[in-house]
Design goal:
alpha+beta; single chain; elongated; 119 residues; 3-stranded antiparallel β-sheet
């Protein structure tokens, strides 16, 4: 079975956050937490919160064991771009974009859910 968590509008550029997400894809939850704890980036601090939320969703809502969970799917989508101004040379104004991200982490135990048919 599978559980997931999403952080929408995270204030980190998607291009930078994807570098960190690539490190934990397919790893066990304990390994992923260790990797994120030893990675010194802003995105790792945001991703570990989403990972902990996905694990909590799996254990509390679906009754899965935390030791059996692994990161089955994780990705970063671009969010809304916040546009700001930056003063340029020769009295001009340039645009300075603050990019945001949507962080999605899915954890699974590797077992498929069986559906019983009613007769």
């Amino acid at each position: 079975m599978e559980a997931y968590a999403i952080n929408k509008g995270a204030m980190v550029a998607p291009r930078k956050a994807r570098l960190t997400v690539d490190l934990i894809r397919g790893k066990k939850v304990s390994e992923a937490r260790a990797i994120l704890a030893n990675t010194n980036t802003k995105s790792s601090r945001l991703i570990v919160k989403v990972l902990n939320s996905a694990v909590a969703n799996a254990t509390n809502n679906l009754g899965l064991k935390e030791e059996e969970l692994f990161v089955s799917e994780c990705f970063i989508n671009p969010g809304q771009t916040i546009k700001r101004i930056k003063f340029g040379s020769r009295s001009r104004v340039n645009r300075h974009d603050h990019r945001t991200s949507h962080i999605v982490v899915k954890v699974s135990d590797g077992k498929t859910e069986t559906v019983k048919e009613a007769k």
